[in-house]
Prior knowledge:
The protein is an all-alpha fold.
Amino acid sequence: MLQCRPRPEIINCTPTKVDRVAARECLKAAADTFHGIKEGLVVSLPKQCGIDVGFTFSKDIDCKNINIPDSEKKNGEKEKKNVEKEEQIARFGADKEKEISKLKELFEADCIAEKQKANQEKGRADAMVVKAESQKALAEDNCKKFMEEKRCADKMSQQLELRRG
């Protein structure tokens, strides 16, 4: 029984117009290899290959010049372009995901650096507060000493006045 050489390729095709166009081209090449065979076998070639290609084979067919309708070619091209666009969108999405991931990493690194900087500033501020508090305590001690000395001086002054008077 006559077999189409590219049969596995055609059988595995999904039924889109792009694949039908490819299958037709495949059948053209296969039919072209069968010169001088019985017309019935040539006519049944598409059926044997497992696909309806939308045109009739005959003994006298010019396999290399079978015309595929322009509308079908254009539809096939559109489908290819749509697939390409979807692939580009998917790649673009993946690239954007990577870019977003990098930006997140940079942002997190910046946040960590800012937190460290803020902690350092807080540490400096805390040190200044401690220093100010110690200076305040020292000033209060000095003030107490001064007040005691003043009281002492006032008492002495009173005692001197009492002795004079």
